[in-house]
Every structure is written in structure tokens, then in C-alpha cells.
Design goal:
The protein contains eight helices and nine strands.
Amino acid sequence: MDVLTVDIKQAGYEERNPVIRDISFNVGAGELVGLIGPNGAGKSTTVKSILGLLRHVEGTIEFGGESKRYAYVPEQPVLYEYMTLWEHLQLAAAAFGLEEQVFAERANKLLDRFRLQGDRDRLPTGFSKGMQQKMMLIIGFMLEPDIYVVDEPFVGLDPRATRDFLALLEAERERGAGVLMSTHVLDTAERICNRFLLVNTGSVVAQGTLDEVRDQAGCAADAPLFDCFYALT
């Protein structure tokens, strides 16, 4: 079962001035798809189109799964100046209609996991970049959606937090959640992604498993994802 189906004919920030064209792919339940490409290739425009943040989108985006809910974890944390960490979590839970008991259990478990329990009453505007990123990950995991859209999740995370993130991601995939992850950390992407979508100059230049991407890039059978990226972009 697909939890995300994308068929974008064209999309952009201004009418009749598309930035991306012919972006079509799907994410299955329990599948992790890596969205790869150089800066300015169209990754952010693709993500914004999926999230409904662009007015000028021609095509279809369909969310599947039981709840048809998604969680978006942005590269740049979204913070409210006078709200504590716990209040940020409460706001997200209220927006998604989580019951108070469910919210408290999930939130406390995740705060413990990311070692932020002692910071729950602090203002995240004073956190380090890594702590702010952990907060955004906690919000995403707390919601337990059908599909995660994650943008550069490794930025600012220390090795231990990265391990925690990957372990939680694997648990969510076992639950049946799909993941679309945009990242430049190609060695990690190569290790954890089921399939890849490589974009350049606004269009898909390769997609599929690593073996299929190697084929499309004309790379050797044992070439790393980095070589395919270099060949295609």
C-alpha cells in the first residue's frame, strides 16, 4: 500500500514559471525513499508542493494509509519565542487532536529518549541547533503519522542523537509508516534507504533502488551512491 503518491507535472513560485517538471514517484508503507540532489535542484520545491505550500502546482499529490496524516520535520526549526519546549509539544498535539493521556505518554517517552526531559520548561529559542532539531523530531515522532516528510534531519545532531533518530525511524517503518527524506548525507542515505529519487535542474534524473540508480548513472555495480550522484548531477 502506498502512503504517498506524487505526480507533479510542473510547479513553481510564480504562474507560468515552473521550477520543477515531471516529478513522479510513490512511497510505500514501511518504505524509506531518499530525495537526493544538489543545491537548487528542486528538492525544496518538491517538498513544498507535497505539503501544499505552493499555489502554482499542476498535478496530484495523494496521501494514503489509515489516517492519511503526515508529519513534516523541517531543516530549520519552527519556534515560538515565548513558549517552552513542553508548550510546543502541547500545541502540536492539540493541532493533531491527540488525547491528553496519549500525548503525555508519547511526549515523555521521547523526551527521555533524546535526553531533553530536564529542558521541558525551558524556551527552545535558547537551545543549541541540535537541541532545537531534537524538538522537531520529537514533535514528528509523537504524532505517529502514516508518512514522514523529513528535510535534512542530520543537521546539528550529535552521533548519539543520530543513532536515536535512526532507531526510532526504523521502529516507525516497522509500524508501517513511510518516509520521504531529503538529505545530503549520502553515506547514511545509501545505508538506510530502500529507494532513491535523484533530481537535478528541476527534473528526475534517476530513481529506484541503488542498483537501478547505478544502472541509470552508468556506474559500476559496486559504485557508492556518491559516484552516482556525481555522474548524474
